[in-house]
Amino acid sequence: MHSSQLEIQLIASLVAMACAIPGTFLVLRKMAMISDAISHAILPGLVVGFFITQDLNSPILIFLAALTGVITVVLVEQIQKTGLVKEDTAIGLVFPALFSIGVIMIAKNANDVHLDVDAV
Fold it and tell me: Could you give phi then psi for residue 56, rounded to 5 degrees?
């Protein structure tokens, strides 16, 4: 086994151990889709960060995306605590709303900017 193969196996093992406990916790709370929700809901943070810096490589984009992810979790928790909807329904309400806000901001103000998967 080459050293690069050993390194890949070690990284894969560490990632598996790091994801096992939070993943189990999220499944038991019926919130397994929260990671998908966060990945979609960070778009408004990225767009606002781009409007501020005009640079797709700025670290401010990462900061605002992380802040938007935290806001997503807070909103999901607040909606769930009302007792009107279940956990998965709260996720289904928040992330499309935030994602659509990001899409609308891009469509209205940044039509000529190419925000692709690499930028996100």
Answer: -75, -10
Q: State whether 88 and 50 are in the same domain.
A: yes
Residues 49 and 91 in one domain: yes
Same domain, 23 and 41: no
Residue type at position 105: M
Tens of pLDDT along the chain (120 residues)?
688 888 999 999 998 888 888 878 777 877 778 878 888 888 899 889 888 988 878 889 889 999 999 999 899 889 989 989 888 888 888 988 998 998 888 888 776 766 665 555
22 and 67 fall within a common domain: no
Q: Report the C-alpha gap between 99 and 91 in whole angstroms.
A: 12
72 and 104 belong to one structural domain: yes
Please give the residue range of the domain that contains residue 120. 33-120
Contacts of 5 by beta carbon, 8 Å cutoff, 6+ apart: none
Query: Which residues, 6+ apart, have CB-to-CB distance to 26 below 8 Å?
Result: 32, 34, 35
